[in-house]
Amino acid sequence: MAAAYTLYGSFLSAPTYKVGLMLALCGLKYDYRHVDLAKGQHKSADFLRINRYGQVPAMIHDGFTLCQANTILEYIAEQTEKFAPANGEERQRIREWLVWETDRLEPGINRSRFFERFAKPDQAVVDYHRKWAEMGLGVLDELMEGKRFLVGERPTIADIGVYGVVAHMAEAKFDIGAWPQVKAWSERVAALPGFKLPYDLLPKADQDAA
Ligand SMILES: N[C@@H](CCC(=O)N[C@@H](CS)C(=O)NCC(=O)O)C(=O)O
Fold it and tell me: What is the pLDDT of residues 55-94, one digit of tens each?
């Protein structure tokens, strides 16, 4: 029988990892559909019906189609009440973190990683993005001082969204040791039950829930 959740994504994609990590930490079974970005499958007519933006990840839950990783995290948290806000103030703080990271953290780290792994543009472009990543990591490090998790004392989807990016910083050739609060926090996330690193989590081909 098909699982209630189907995740469409790529094992190379940090935003796909965010959703896969959330499903794993919630202990949810899901069918996985590999979208081959190199072959342009994300721009095919079939896939555009699932995600109009032509990007991974996308998810279908009981016939309801979703895209944009951080909003998928919010959806799963609402469905399961796991990693969810405890009250209205936490909901707001979580959203602030999730918007901040797509604005100030993800572009610098993910593009720096892309340049290291796939295609290097002019050095000035590389330097520009590395500077943005370092600024974002600096803000995260400062704001994590004296805190266990981003919002309150327990992990929420804010941690999962931000961690999904931080997990890829080594591939972007950033040494997490330069940001000690980020390092300590990321170790707390990695200690959560069900946690898996990116390449241990996402299959390289379609996989149905066991
Ligand atoms: N804001 C989107 C970003 C998704 C994204 O950038 N996905 C990349 C792979 S990591 C992609 O599909 N790139 C192909 C494209 O944008 O055409 C999210 O969080 O889901």
Answer: 999 999 999 999 999 999 999 999 999 999 999 999 999 9
- Rounded to 5°, the CA angle 157-160-166 comes to 145
CATH 1.20.1050.10 domain span(s) along the chain: 88-190
* Spatial CA neighbour of 53 closest among 35, 32, 68: 68
**CATH architecture of the domain covering 5-82+195-201:** 3-Layer(aba) Sandwich (3.40)
Q: Pairing state of beta strands 30-34 and 58-61?
A: unpaired
Q: Is 15 in the pocket of ligand 1 (CB under 6 A)?
A: yes
Residue range 88-190 in CATH 3.30.470.20: no
**Mutation to probe ligand 1, out of 17, 35, 56 (largest number of atoms < 8 A from CB):** 56
184 CA distance to ligand 1 middle (Å): 28
The DSSP element (H or E) to which 31 belongs, if any, is strand 30-34
* pLDDT (average), residues 9-15: 98
